[in-house]
């Protein structure tokens, strides 16, 4: 049984309260760490991720010894909790696994899942390209390849589904309901080829600057200019989350569930998209319904009018002693 730590000061109480579960969680911060050996290509990967995620990322340039994510994660969990980060990107290079980038996801102070991406040697001239992206710019993310949409239960489909989820957590930024079109200035394309001979396809990361040109019509012509460095990865080791822990991590509050409103009784959506509902009322007595007040609609006025009409009519009465006249024949 875990020992419950009670705060001794008001500052500690505020820190612990900010770490409690919330109906709408804050944006995840990313912790970027260097291993004992971090060559320039690997440092470029960490620097690029830090540029795209700042100010919600922490880059520690000091070399960390004796950290092995797939063997012992205690040090990484401690550093993530100290810096209040939900994502960790660990870059380290060794003779057996050169230029390895490990992405970890933290839940409740523990490692949820992780994946290792091995950086391949660059064969293009994108090393010296700059990435002109402003702070807090939300990217458009494109996943190109059939492996990203594979929903089967195969090992490859599960692996690339986890890689896609981790990339979205790192680069998607804060969730917003609306966004200005002027803020969509760059595109992140994450492409993967087709699997060959049972091997996992490589993952390619490319960044493009969105430019609008005059087209002579109402809508502008959109062009993409490739910017920033290019990275090619090969998927290495993976560690999936436990099913029970993942179910707990994916839990939502009932008020925030998107399907909750559609499950309400007598509430639905019409073809236009408006919310419509049905209200049940008790039986109403329409005799007591208040209508427009008019003199002609009053009950007394109606009876008086019938009596006056009866008095004004001439009735031809026939006496009982007087025989009825026979009609005259022509």
TrEMBL record:
Cellular component, GO annotation: nucleolus
Superkingdom of source: Eukaryota
GO BP, sorted A to Z: maturation of LSU-rRNA from tricistronic rRNA transcript (SSU-rRNA, 5.8S rRNA, LSU-rRNA); ribosomal large subunit assembly
Subcellular location: Nucleus, Nucleolus
GO molecular function, one term: rRNA binding
UniProt keyword list: Nucleus
Region Disordered, annotated ranges: 297-330
InterPro entries referenced in this protein's UniProt entry, alphabetically: Brix, Rpf2
Positions of the Brix domain: 28-244
Protein name as it appears in the record: Ribosome production factor 2 homolog
Taxonomic classification: Eukaryota, Fungi, Dikarya, Ascomycota, Pezizomycotina
């Amino acid at each position: 049984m875990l020992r419950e730590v009670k705060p001794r000061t008001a500052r500690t109480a505020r820190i612990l309260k900010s770490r409690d579960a919330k109906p709408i969680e804050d944006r995840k911060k990313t912790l970027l760490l260097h291993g004992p050996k971090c060559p320039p290509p690997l440092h470029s990967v960490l620097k690029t991720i830090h540029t795209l995620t700042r100010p919600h990322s922490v880059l520690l340039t000091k070399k960390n010894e004796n950290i092995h994510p797939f063997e012992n994660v205690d040090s990484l969990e401690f550093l993530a909790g100290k810096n209040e980060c939900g994502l960790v990107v660990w870059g380290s290079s060794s003779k057996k696994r050169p230029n390895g980038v490990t992405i970890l996801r933290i839940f409740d102070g523990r490692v949820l899942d992780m994946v290792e991406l091995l950086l391949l040697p660059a064969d293009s001239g994108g090393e010296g390209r700059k990435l002109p992206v402003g702070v807090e710019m939300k990217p458009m993310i494109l996943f190109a390849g059939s492996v990203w949409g594979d929903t089967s239960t195969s090992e490859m489909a599960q692996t690339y589904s986890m890689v896609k989820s981790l990339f979205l957590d790192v680069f998607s930024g804060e969730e917003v309901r609306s966004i200005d079109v002027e803020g969509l200035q760059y595109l992140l394309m994450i492409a993967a080829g087709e699997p060959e001979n049972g091997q996992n396809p490589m993952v390619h990361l490319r960044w493009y600057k969105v430019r609008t040109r005059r087209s002579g019509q109402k809508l502008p012509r959109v062009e993409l200019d490739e910017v920033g460095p290019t990275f090619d990865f090969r998927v290495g080791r993976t560690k999936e989350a436990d099913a029970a822990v993942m179910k707990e991590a994916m839990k939502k509050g009932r008020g925030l569930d998107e399907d909750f409103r559609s499950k309400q009784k007598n509430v639905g959506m019409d073809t236009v998209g408006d919310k419509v509902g049905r209200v049940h009322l008790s039986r109403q007595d329409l005799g007591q319904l208040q209508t427009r007040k008019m003199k002609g609609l009053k009950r007394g006025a109606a009876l008086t009018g019938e009596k006056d009409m009866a008095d004004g009519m001439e009735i031809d009465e026939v006496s009982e002693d007087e025989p009825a006249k026979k009609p005259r024949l022509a």
